[in-house]
Amino acid sequence: MPDRIQRRRTPGWRAEDHTTSPLGTVYVGRPTRFANPARLIHADHGLVVQWGTTGGAVGTWPADGVEARRYATELYENWLGQPEQESTRALFRAVLFGRDLMCWCPLPEPGQPDHCHAAVLLDLANRPASA
């Protein structure tokens, strides 16, 4: 199974050094077609989840971000699962199958759920076609 890689700005950090897939790594954050339309916006009172660049806020969460990331990931998974997104899912499967995926979301602690849209994409791209 391919991996999710957290992109870094650390001097000397290179994605190639973290790639485990022989097919390479694909960046799935903004501004790519794979990006999650649900954005986390920092506000005085915590984090706000916003759908798209002009959408309204759909909730407010504590500033630690865990629950906000969970909700934003669920929004993405639900959106991607809609019947009208079948052609999008087919394209994503074709392009992302077998590749490591990279974004800025923090990696989960061992045994914890991965609240990142790249984890959703890894599952989508690499599950059996009948699923």
Notes on the protein architecture:
The protein has 131 residues and is of the alpha/beta class. The chain has one domain (4-36, 65-126). Helices cover 27% and strands 21% of the residues. It contains 3 helices and 6 strands, in the order βββββααβα. The protein has helices at 66-80, 86-96, 117-126, and strands at residues 4-6, 25-27, 38-43, 46-51, 57-61, 100-103. The strands form 2 sheets. Strands 1-6-2 form a 3-stranded parallel sheet, with helices on one face. A 3-stranded antiparallel sheet has the order 3-4-5, covered by helices on one side. Helix 2 packs across helix 3 (117-126). The longest helix has 15 residues, at 66-80. The chain is globular and about 45 Å long. The mean pLDDT is 90.
